[in-house]
Automatic annotation (TrEMBL):
One of its GO terms (molecular function) is RNA endonuclease activity. Keywords: Endonuclease, Hydrolase, Nuclease. The keyword Disulfide bond does not apply. This is Uncharacterized protein (TIGR00255 family). It comes from the Bacteria.
Amino acid sequence: MIFSMTGYGKATCLLPNKKITIEMKSLNSKQLDLNVRIPSLYREKEIEVRNEVSARLLRGKVDVSFYVESAISDKVTQINRQVIEGYHRQLMPIAQDLNLSNSSDLLSIIMSLPETVKTEQAELDEQEWASIKTTLIQAIEQLNDFRRQEGDALKRELQGRVERITQLMSEVEPHEKARIEKIKTRLHENLQELAGKFSVDDNRFEQELIFYLEKLDITEEKVRLTNHIQYFYETMNEAEASGKKLGFIAQEMGREINTMGSKANDAAMQRIVIQMKDELEKIKEQSLNVL
């Protein structure tokens, strides 16, 4: 089964005083490249989030984003009574010396001084986090479902390209036979032109001709290409991730197609080989999208 590396997942968690939405996006990457954007309240759980995502997603550039809509702040503000009392003890004698009797004015002055108010991060509720973690898993599953659907489309695309290469390979055969006859005829004609100047051993000529034609034979390349194509089909149906393996097989297919082109020595065959190369390049491009 083929999975695409491109995907999108989204899940929402409704808590008593807040709504948390988790979005996940993935793109192509050779390895797992994970980027997590998480509110400060849940920062201590970032490693747990990374581990959860890494265990369920093998490859890809993955962005995980937490969005929080809360009716209450996750920060707790407290008045620092001890600091205020300290300021008051110091300022009260000065106020009396200056005949400043308005205590509200004095308090407003004190509250503007440093550290009279302290803001602390609220503590994370483990029960709340359990609900959020369940939502995270749901988002991952949605992303995987998206990848599976994209993978089905990729599989159809790859199968069509490979089938086209198989068809083109079958079209080579008639040109291959005609090519051999053309080469024989051309060599015989050239030999006849030289017959008046040099003596030619017909038996030796036949031996050299057979040796030359063997170098142009592409039977082995076609057999190996057929085997690679069969292996490509088998790999697409494997359960585990197969993107890298498909890329390697495509490289081997390319070697055989290139060798066929170098041995073609025929314009019609070379045109077919060029079409095969074009299909193979599209296969390589699509293989980069496979997980």
